[in-house]
What we know:
Helix content of chain A: over 70%
Strand content of chain A: under 5%
CATH class of chain A: Mainly Alpha
Number of domains of chain B: 1
Oligomer: heterotrimer
Radius of gyration of chain B: 26 Å
Strand order of the largest sheet of chain B: 1-2
Amino acid sequence: xxxxxxxxxxxxxxxxxxxxxxxxxxxxxxxxxxxxxxxxxxxxxxxxxxxxxxxxxxxxxxxxxxxxxxxxxxxxxxxxxxxxxxxxxxxxxxxxxxxxxxxxxxxxxxxxxxxxxxxxxxxxxxxxxxxxxxxxxxxxxxxxxxxxxxxxxxxxxxxxxxxxxxxxxxxxxxxxxxxxxxxxxxxxxxxxxxxxxxxxxxxxxxxxxxxxxxxxxxxxxxxxxxxxxxxxxxxxxxxxxxxxxxxxxxxxxxxxxxxxxxxxxxxxxxxxxxxxxxxxxxxxxxxxxxxxxxxxxxxxxxxxxx
Amino acid sequence: xxxxxxxxxxxxxxxxxxxxxxxxxxxxxxxxxxxxxxxxxxxxxxxxxxxxxxxxxxxxxxxxxxxxxxxxxxxxxxxxxxxxxxxxxxxxxxxxxxxxxxxxxxxxxxxxxxxxxxxxxxxxxxxxxxxxxxxxxxxxxxxxxxxxxxxxxxxxxxxxxxxxxxxxxxxxxxxxxxxxxxxxxxxxxxxxxxxxxxxxxxxxxxxxxxxxxxxxxxxxxxxxxxxxxxxxxxxxxxxxxxxxxxxxxxxxxxxxxxxxxxxxxxxxxxxxxxxxxxxxxxxxxxxxxxxxxxxxxxxxxxxxxxxxxxxxxxxxxxxxxxx
Amino acid sequence: xxxxxxxxxxxxxxxxxxxxxxxxxxxxxxxxxxxxxxxxxxxxxxxxxxxxxxxxxxxxxxxxxxxxxxxxxxxxxxxxxxxxxxxxxxxxxxxxxxxxxxxxxxxxxxxxxxxxxxxxxxxxxxxxxxxxxxxxxxxxxxxxxxxxxxxxxxxxxxxxxxxxxxxxxxxxxxxxxxxxxxxxxxxxxxxxxxxxxxxxxxxxxxxxxxxxxxxxxxxxxxxxxxxxxxxxxxxxxxxxxxxxxxxxxxxxxxxxxxxxxxxxxxxxxxxxxxxxxxxxxxxxxxxxxxxxxxxxxxxxxxxxxxxxxxxxxxxxxxxxxxxxxxxxxxxxxxxxxxxxxxxxxxxxxxxxxxxxxxxxxxxxxxxxxxxxxxxxxxxxxxxxxxxxxxxxxxxxxxxxxxxxxxxxxxxxxxxxxxxxxxxxxxxxxxxxxxxxxxxxxxxxxxx
Lengths: 306, 323, 447
């Protein structure tokens, strides 16, 4: 396990070809100065393929929208589009535990993400710059990410109990904060490497201590990277299901995936309401992703493959 | 410490404008300063180390202890049983089947995602200039919570009024029922389709970025040399992105090995045991059958399997990236 | 049934009564198991009690919370989880020391595992010293499986939950059937005819609960096992799951697998019930409370007044009906609660005949079935739902119950898995499938 864990965090980055700095890439992308071959024979095929991919991505989501406006009768009758939009599905979804679940999810996701960054940034910087902890630490750091998280449930429950945080939103937030520290360190690694060392050394010469260096120099320079990694962690938290099932059963603390999974075991099936509820749950996270898409893409591409 | 920095930075030492801290003539304050620096560095990594203790070491010890004892959900560690659980887990056909299923599912899903993802990235790269809109679109499947992806694809595959069923009835003469998720051989494919839909965009984004990051001069040189587009792709582009593709494959493999939410929502491991992937099997042993000792033993078996499967791919990735 | 004698009443009732009065007056904070339950007393005014219920009891939970608070001033907080998670949630809650929940109502089959893990508290002393619980009034065939783990009492029956055969009168008529089937063979024949005639229009002979869960597919199998006169365990508690009757039951399930609402393997409560309410299936085996809901237009039922209900079919015509206790639920007190007095008082009240009778006919429907002889014979119930009452009377004698005790949950799961594998054609013959289950059960339940 240890060796595998080492993979993304320490070795991959040392690829011989220095990747283009992210800003270069994005700039080139934005200016549209792609140097890729245009007008080649494959282009029609390429366009066709891209169009197909767009269809494949959108059709399931469109189908969900369609379902959310149909009654169970229309769905069973095999309609693809609502003959008479059943808006009551959305009303029912809105008047259920879903809005509260969304609020809970957002709180746990954002606070958890902020905490994760607070814990991960000093560690990531020190590991990259000073190799504190040696290769053991940088190699091990990703190990918790490799196995299914189900294995950690019982030990974590015991821990939360000791802190008196079971079945509470702060408890779940804390677990999320801890859970994503390894991934955050891994993603931050690529960004930290790109900070020119001179900046840090100049600050050090000005007499800045390590703590000041971190606060006044590293964190501001990392700004966009923090947003990028932060958004990724927010999404991971928002989507998490297994821990949420066991850590937040009380009505007030259930997150939205838990509420949705609960709907599936109801005694009367209502696809329309479940579809509308699912869409309600997706809206906030889609909004965040679309608004911050550039950061998100950069976080994924710079962080995951260096 | 700053020697580290010099080694690891891409800027040559000469380019660093100010003199190095070591050059300071005042030796005593430097060593004191180093000591405080070192103290701070330790302080900075402390949270990460604590996280490792809480998330890795503590569960590991718990699992090891549970695997070696008779442990139920409510009362772990009742009595020491040695290797009994491990032997039972390794010898259980259900566990073996599940490991085999998990491995083929992981490799299959990772391969399909990587091939489709790379093809899409290349197509995207050849047909659009920036792809900003398309990239946003591609983000969508990835950020839909897996529980909802599971619900969505259960609807799509539903034999009574699902998307596929409806399309088949409307556009073909098909009149029976096509129930993907209740067919022992198709169910796992159904889960895989949802998984591929959700995570292939990640591969697209990673490879697309790598394509954009190619050195334009090399590409131009190749064009000037009159290289055919196909040759150009094979000899110039492919080697540049090979490392990224391999890394994407590895990430995808690990994600697929951990699949749980989709199975939980779509098939509950059925029909029979045909979608009983390792994460689901462990969950069931611990939380449905209350046998935490067995669950821990299966986890250890899984750890061995995951290591054996990912290790060669990890080394391949490393070689591709180092070349 | 030996149940009536199974609670030794060594202590004279008078003494028990005196003791409890003393305990009450002496110190109400005393956590002794002796204190007497009197729901109407204001002792616990302002206190709170946390309930963990399965999602299908949400309505019942709300009703109970409201009524109990009105009577006693105790605030009841109800948490609901999916039906297959209730035991693990309760165990994790108790094992981790969180002890959030005071009272729960798990599937009776899980009582053994919960008791073995210390997640639920024994109630024997309390029940023996509290005559008003009126154990004799619980439906006899329900009492033993729903309450006892070995000789110890751990639960009070809450939701009887037997299946009956519901039929859509119009669909049967359209297909020329005057009577619902009396045998499983007739049932298969009618199902196949209806599907053949109307399958193209989306109307099927039956919704067969076949999702791979003990309470769903397991229930469908248990219904047939009851009908064929089989048992899970013999008189000495040894598994007999590969008996001739069991094989016939599995084959009977197989007979309708192809003709049922597509596809049985994906038919859970939601899918099956929805098809029933929409009038798209001729038959459904379901809890008797489905009838209450079928008459309730608010629940979206399109079959109101167009349905009938009868006993589950048998092997031969003319045999006496036999009930199958597929998914009953029992009230339990959490193992580590520090409110055991209040919790005991609450479950005594909630399991009482009066409360059960009101839950039976409450609107919106609560999904609760009779647990008491008295409530089964209740007047309102018999006036509103005479057919349901009649069917439920079959529980009075000789019902089929799942194995209970330690590992019973896993045993039910193993059976369900193997049956599912067989029905999806991953196993050989029905006999071989059940032989496998038999050997697993011998390992799980005997050793």
